[in-house]
Amino acid sequence: EYGDDILDGGEGNDILEGGEGYDILIGGTGNDILKGGDWHKDRYEFEAGHGQDVINDKGRDYEFTKHERNDVVFKGAKLADAKFIRSGTDLVIQAYGSIDSVTLPDYFNNNSSAFNFIFDDQAITLENIKKDYAFILSGDEKDNIISGWQGNDILIGGAGDDVLKGGSGNDILNGGVGNDILNGGDFDKDRYEFEAGHGQDVVNDLGYMDKKNKDQRNDLVFKGASLADAEFIRSGNDLVIYAYGSADSVTLPDYFNTKNKNSRAFNFVFEDKSVTYEDMKKNRSFGVTKAKNGNDFINLRNIASSDLADNTQLKGKFISNHSNDPSAQIQNLLSAMAGFTPAIDDRLNSVEPIQQSMHLTSAPAY
């Protein structure tokens, strides 16, 4: 209990308590509870197959006490393969796959984050996590409200009608099935991912529309969808996108509001091509053979706050739900969207799985 100890639990579900001093705790296999002792530097060692373990240890996490932080050592594991998952105020680390886990209760509150995470290739701390990595926050089949942390987060709603709030940082939001409200956080580059069956979702996010910050626009990624099959519908000042048929939709409120152009800061990323607001503005029609009201031709009136010019052919379908203006020219919406160069890098067309837990902010695509 007093002094420097080495505790090895071996097999079974163990409780190891180091007490005072510098202790080394090895739970072994089984689901273990490890307590090195508060306010002293301790070392926790893990290997593949260690089970689902919990560490209870407090420390002073200040600049002048960095040398007193506890070490959590994952032998034979690489940082690039690890997952850092936030569950409430707890941190869960999966260094060897989903079967093994280390939980740090209350990590996101004061005095519970004094840890160094040591892998074979490198070590990180809370400062690195805040700056460089994204946490996974997952919902379930219920209606969840999930809020991100201070940095980059991956928010997964699952089933149900969810509300996802990314906050600051470059976040990835995937509402899953159900009718979700998604807000990645204004004026940060966020990524919204959709698949067939995602439901009727709403995205609230502002960004910069100036040329200088064009690469900071938010990405709406429609996995498995072709731009040629998508419908872009104007409803008042809102833009509604149907990428997978009439059952699924993504609404961007106030997208066409001329007094708030920051509502347009989106790249629309499909499997074949990507488009932006500028592409809509340059092209008068997005070609539709049959509108929802049964008319073959739809009157477009100031679709992008000014007449959409240029005869470049587009695939994809653009319908306006504006009231008809008798003086407006009836547009033949039978163009094709074939000639576009993608608005953003092609690497976004092969997205890493949402389950990947960490994304360096310096990486090319999140």
From TrEMBL:
Keyword Secreted attributed: yes
Keywords: Secreted
Gene Ontology terms: cellular component: extracellular region
Protein name, as recorded: Hemolysin-type calcium-binding repeat (2 copies)
Chief localization: secreted
GO molecular function, one term: calcium ion binding
Subcellular localization: Secreted
A Pfam match: HemolysinCabind
Lineage: Bacteria, Pseudomonadati, Pseudomonadota, Betaproteobacteria, Neisseriales
Cited InterPro entries: Hemolysin-typ_Ca-bd_CS, Hemolysn_Ca-bd, RTX_toxin/Mannuronan_C5-epim, Serralysin-like_metalloprot_C
